Amino acid sequence: MKFEEFGLHEKITRSIDQLGYKRPTDIQFKAIPAILEGEDVLAIAQTGTGKSAAFVIPILQLLQKKRKNRDGVRCIVMVPTHELARQITDVFKQIGKNTALKFTAIYGGVDQTEQVERLKKGTDVLVATPGRLFDYINQGVVKVYNAEMLVLDEADHMLDLGFYKDIQDLIKYLPKNRQTLFFSATIDQKIKKLAYSLVRRPIRIQISPKNPVAKNIDHSVAFIKMDDKRFFLERIVRANEDKKILAFVRTKVRCERVLKAMERLKIEAVSIHSDKSQEQRDATMQQFKDGEVKLLIATDVSARGIDIPNVDIVVNYDLPEQPENYVHRVGRTGRGKQKGTAIAFCSEEEKPLLEAIEKYTGHPIHVTEIDHDEYADTIDFSTETHADWKTLMRQAEEDEAEFMAIKKKRAKKKRK
């Protein structure tokens, strides 16, 4: 099937052709007709399946088809992170560039002045993080009482970040007679409760392959001591100097520590996490997108918001505490039909996390064996010149203490 068969407006199909989209993905094939029919949709689909376009394309068609005859925003798309807000707005702009429709992203962490000025000029589609959207509604900056459509994207992640009440409060301001689209990578009882409080007799779509990791991603795990990981990251970077590498770590402190380790090794890298200002995050992302810097070190907060073309390798420098985040992390490579590679570093302390990931995916992760000589050579041939062993030992002790604290917190949560 081709996109033309959906009966889309010529202005939209022209943009789709220019973007090089040939045929709809599974989620697009199933979601687009239902949305065009005005149905509420509850869609469960893994990352990297093209779900942004699955709702952007039909929304553009519906808005283009109907004339605006009421005041305020026509479509609201709620997302969990700044990066995802910008990414989805870019998708709207790319596919809707030949239309007269207006698209605006609003999110926290930046001065309100520019966003408020854009909103005063009017917008058809508003892509927003919950906190900033609610702020603007209370200030009277955004009028949502005539919204025809509501989209919740990455709904599971929004709940993880504690936005349940914000979403419920927003619904009070929206018309009951609206179309609601609910997209999530995972489904559990809390997500079901939220979904069914928002949608009416929805069309349920679930794209859930036997293995939640996309088949075009070659992913594996290597067993490496916690304080040797920097040497193996160095080895991967030096062996792939022309490739974009995205390394995920557990915390903001680890993020900066790994960045400093790379600096000692004379490897240019940048980091991104929630302590960075929006301006810093934007500049960092642009450097990585443009290929000025080949290594980006990030925390899980960024895992779902990063959509960068041609990420060649994902390194799970630390295994994630939540097993589903493994899927989101490795899904930053191998986007669409491209091939991708992911490697996880697993220390002795992290083996329970590895077991949880394998249980979640339903598949054992292939082990990359490192023999004794190869392991020793990787450390011996490192170009690290920093020999402050007291600092390194202190960092190793801090890493161990940090991991044990997380382990205790997880055990306490299980007992509840």
What does the secondary structure layout of this molecule look like, with pairings?
Layout: H1 10-18, H2 26-36, E1 41-45, H3 51-65, E2 75-78, H4 82-95, E3 103-106, H5 112-120, E4 125-128, H6 130-139, E5 149-152, H7 155-160, H8 164-171, E6 179-184, H9 189-198, E7 203-207, E8 217-223, H10 229-239, E9 245-248, H11 252-264, E10 270-272, H12 278-290, E11 295-298, E12 313-316, H13 323-330, E13 340-346, H14 351-361, E14 366-367, H15 372-380, H16 389-415
Helix pairs in contact: 2-3, 3-4, 13-14
Describe the structure using short key phrases:
416 residues; seven-stranded parallel sheet
How would you describe the overall organization of this protein?
The relative contact order is 0.11. The chain has helices spanning 10-18, 26-36, 51-65, 82-95, 112-120, 130-139, 155-160, 164-171, 189-198, 229-239, 252-264, 278-290, 323-330, 351-361, 372-380, 389-415; strands at residues 41-45, 75-78, 103-106, 125-128, 149-152, 179-184, 203-207, 217-223, 245-248, 270-272, 295-298, 313-316, 340-346, 366-367. The protein is an alpha/beta fold. The longest helix is centred in the last third of the chain and has 27 residues, at 389-415. The mean pLDDT is 86. The strands form two sheets. Strands 3-4-2-5-6-1-7 form a seven-stranded parallel sheet, with helices on both faces.
